[in-house]
Amino acid sequence: MEQLDLDLLRTFAVIAETGALSRAATRVGRTQAAISLQVKRLEHAVNQTLLYRTARGVTLTPHGTRLLAHAQRILRYHDEALAEISGKGLSGTIRFGCPDDYAVVFLPILLRGFAREHPDVLVEVHCAHTPRLLEQLERHALDLALTSLAENEKGVAIIRREPLVWVGAVGSDAANLDPLRLALSDPDTPDHRAARRSLRAAGRSYRLAYSSASLTGLTAVVRSGQAIAVLTRTAVPEDLRVLPPESGLPPLPTFGIALAMDRVRPSALVSAFADHVRVALPAI
After folding, report:
1. What kind of architecture, by CATH, is found in domain 161-256?
2. Which residues contact 70 (CB under 8 A, 6 or more apart)?
3. 151-157: long-range contacts at Cβ-Cβ below 8 A with a sequence spacing of 24 or more?
4. Which of 14, 17, 21, 163 is the least buried, fewest Cβ under 10 Å from its Cβ?
5. Of all residues in the chain, what percent carry a pLDDT higher than 70?
6. Tens digits of per-residue pLDDT, 55-86?
7. Where in the chain is the domain with CATH 3.40.190.10?
């Protein structure tokens, strides 16, 4: 009788989460060829095709979707049992800060992966712009936070890089207005400063027409067609468009994403979460 190998199930769950064999291979520390072989072994064990391969990555077949639900339960029970019996399970609360523009894409994967390994840990999430998160760290209101900073910032370990892009509504001519009408976040945020710096360097006239501290507010203004905004590429909603170089807008810099910590010597719990973020974030 065929048996489901835990290692195969864990790799399959990562593939389903990342949507690409290459990203899954990076996450689990194997080659893409090794990942493909694991999928074939799992498909042989269940005698079903589990993945559709497309130009953009992979999606689950109906049988793959059903197996994923079982795999997630099996892995959760296995990890809980191992942590409880071995006494190595972590518990407690982590106060984690994350910029608003990263939350939608990054947080679900980061939190889900950590919860599988440490089900007794509560992660309190606080979303705000980088300057506000740094202020909370200084007040010891957070344990650690993702922050955006200049790519060439010295003395900081960059975990991932994200380009800034100009964003407008489909069919809107807001990018052609003179002066340009901008919808930007708080004046001290990196994206706000980068936008104004790039326009000044290019000699392009502009005015700040709308200001919002939330990503929801900025994207609502852009959808109205009244202004354009600057967002990280990963934060651009599907119904908005990245304005191409042909629009005449100046190039924007790439940001680095780093972890800022409240303490030089964090607790074992915070260190475990930080290590998880450093491994998982580049593969998302």
Report:
1. 3-Layer(aba) Sandwich (3.40)
2. none
3. 151/253, 151/254, 151/255, 151/256, 153/256, 153/258, 156/256, 156/258, 157/258, 157/259
4. 163
5. 97
6. 888 999 999 999 998 998 898 788 777 776 77
7. 92-146+259-283, 161-256
